Cytochrome C biogenesis protein
Amino acid sequence: MELIHVYPDGPWLKRRSWVDWMFAVALAAGASFALDRYGAYMGGYEKGILIAAVPVFAALGWHWRAVRALMLGIAVLALTAINLYHGQLARAEEVFLLKYFLSSQSAILWMSLLFLLSTLFYWGGLLTRSPFGASVGSKLCWSAVLLGFTGMMVRWYESYLLGTDVGHIPISNLYEVFVLFCMITALFYLYYEQRYATKAMGAFVLLVISAAVGFLLWYSIARDAYAILPLVPALQSWWMKIHVPANFIGYGTFSLAAMVGVAYLLVDREERQIKLAGGEAGSGFFGSRLPSLVLLDDVMYKSIAVGFAFFTIATILGSLWAAQAWGGYWSWDPKETWALIVWLNYAAWLHMRLMKGLRGTVAAWWALIGLLITTFAFLGVNMFLSGLHSYGHL
């Protein structure tokens, strides 16, 4: 059953507690500190993005209070790491805390391990019906997100230690965006986990995150992908800071929907078999452990709806960026073409849902097939095709 939050009557802003406002003030203070210390490295648009992020993240923290502790933890760990560097990148191998925990590479490795452990505990909790196992899996997932974001923040700082001409937001290559994908997918799952008060979906959603972690570890070892390199000219733009995150909110939520679709298909198939055998609904292995088909269908729909909105924004931003970088809004580059295919696929899914009442196994299979299309657009294009986006090749 969906959790319904009841708030006192009155205007939304007047319902905020003093803790809410202190959180907003802390965000504003952090943005002011960043502008004062790093403003010289920012352009006008970048400063605008930073300022606009304050009310956005304040509203997020007001709506989803669990994320406040996450933001605080990221700030504490990232600032601790930055202070330990003393402006010298070599200290990453000299200071114990940096070498084994807080340097970007170490933090991301810890993130990877925690996601893998989280997957095991979620599955252990599902198979044994153990609330303890699922609870541990959830805490490990939160910890992985914390260290992943910390690693990204520290990597951002490390890039500037290599040189002001090298410094850039760490979302410019496959290594960095795979980390981003893991964290976005996990965060959206954790939101639905809390909203619907069920941890059973984690066993399925964490599978796609673990697959991404597996690729990330292989890519790091086989290609030394963790190395921080200067940006190619096409990526030296403030557009990257908003286009890529919007894009990967889409990728992450589409992947989440697909894995929830897998859970839906398993429960539905089991329920059909039980019905044919004259058994009682909800008595099967998956049916007795996973949420209802109605809830799974709702999560699948909401994930695709959110992902489609952000993917649409990302596509528009990408065309504006392309006009600035290459002189045209659209060039039918393989990456652009497959992005359009992804967009059309989910536009059709939502159209059928809203206009024709698409539900059930067809919707779940479509969401799963959508993951294959999205994966090719995300990774396959970089592996097998070439074009203007070839800077992301393996």
